[in-house]
Amino acid sequence: MSNPDLHRAISMKPSPFHAHPRSERTSSPAPHHHLHLTDGSSTAVETCNHHADDHDPVARHVSRESDLERQSLPQYTPESDPYQLAAGLKPQNEIAQIRANTSRKRDGFGPITLNKSAYKARKLEKFYEAQNENIERLLKPVDDHRREAKEEEGSNHLKYRIAVIGSFVANISLAALQLFAAISSRSLSLFTTMADSLFDPLSNLTLILCARAVKRVDARKFPSGKARIETAGNISFCFIMITVSVVLIVESIREFATHKKTDNTNHFHLESVLAVCVAFATKFALFLYCWAIRNKYSQVRILWEDHRNDLFINGFGILTSVGGAKLRWWIDPMGACILSFLIIFLWSRTAYSEFQLLIGVSADTSMLQLITYISMTHSPLVKQIDTVRSYHSGPRLIVEVDIVMEAEESLQATHDIAEELQIKLESLPDVERAYVHVDYETSHAPEHFLKKEL
After folding, report:
1. Which among 164, 249, 176 is positioned nearest to 207, based on CA atoms?
2. Strand partners, 401
């Protein structure tokens, strides 16, 4: 089962007003050591007998500087790395040697994608880089995951804040500018680009209002909170945008059917075209800025894709609007139809991602691996991991973990270990609630099964 593709959901889109951190949605190959999760759960994983503190062995991992600046492998102790995952780390000098071999194997014969030897070497290099990243992510303390999530949210990164806040301010300004262009020119193509740009700041407004509603929840009326209101609001927002596009398609068809002008072209409105050109140039500048840091911050990649789509829509809208004024009148309504169908497709895809969040799609494999590893290394009294599940409840995650302990263990020790693990899992970014169940064997059928009938 492949990782769920949720990066198109509005709930995963960065906003300068989000109060909770976002977790990274990128996937990476699983390491060869112990953890292989592909179906949203793991069953009966046996832990090793490591000598560690009863409370928080993971918190004693050594924090490190940026991986980009690290030239030697980090050092781990048997307590901080009981499963010896660090043995699978590839030294940077060996990865650099693979990179050098890749350059030599090109031999000047076309791009690297057409050279089979160089292509294989490049894939091998990427694999080792992803494996190193995956192992280091598993060995990273929970506190470091929380800190990095807050930093990625923009508390300590100026470039990230410029990308997020700059895009938000630009969307508000460009929406007003394109509203003027559409009304003054009465071009259906520009009305379509205006509708798309107008709903960018409105989507942020939806997130702001939903975030306020989540904070003002009545616990007696909504015991599990109202975090899913954000996803429900985004779904409604998607269908509003689709409805607007359908209305523009109907207007375009009506223009085709009722056009009785003797002129073969429409009226050319220079100010409107210039306004949309300014919007296009602004989006292009934001596109270039986000492109430069898209691999450093996962949330900026979402903004980059959004600006890329807006560039195509605005550029095509300008061409068809000018074409309707200079060449033939029907180019303008035809362009409006094409753009409206494209917008319907894009927002339908977004709505599908939001529905997945609302229904409860499984967390991605990297998150399941992290939850499993934290549970396995939580305490030496945890003998096995019976089951690990994690699934979305709106934009956040619900975690279910079944651990196995000795049947003779005291109730106090069992309770304390389970509660500490629950608190640790709930401190991970994007985890809303964690449930830890304690058992003494793994030969039984699962306690909770999928109900197919009432």
Report:
1. 164
2. 388, 436
CATH of the domain at 235: 1.20.1510
The answer to whether residue 91 is domain-embedded is yes
Model confidence pLDDT, tens digit, residues 192-242: 888 888 877 877 677 677 767 777 878 888 887 777 887 888 888 788 888
Residues 213 and 86 in one domain: no
**Structural domain boundaries enclosing 281:** 154-359
Give the chain's mean pLDDT: 77
- Looking at the structure of the chain, the number of domains it has is 2
Q: Could you tell me if 132 and 186 lie in one domain?
A: no
What's phi and psi for 257, nearest 5 deg?
-80, -30
What is residue 382's predicted lDDT score, i.e. its pLDDT? 93
Instruction: Decide if 393 is inside a domain.
Output: no
Residue type, 12: M
Among 139, 169, 187, residue at a domain's last position: 139
377 and 57 in contact (C-beta within 8 Å)?
yes
Q: What is the reported pLDDT for 64?
A: 40
How far apart are the two ends of the chain, measured CA to CA in Å? 28
Of the residues 139, 165, 193, which one is the last residue of a structural domain?
139
Q: Are residues 161 and 110 in the same domain?
A: no
Q: Could you read off the pLDDT of 47-100 as tens digits, one per residue? A: 665 444 444 433 333 334 444 444 455 667 777 788 888 888 888 888 888 877
Whole-structure pTM value? 0.72
What angle is formed at CA 320 by the lines to CA 318 and CA 326, rounded to 5 degrees?
100
What are the distances in angstroms from CA 398 to CA 10, 43, 227? 19, 18, 12
pLDDT at 341: 93
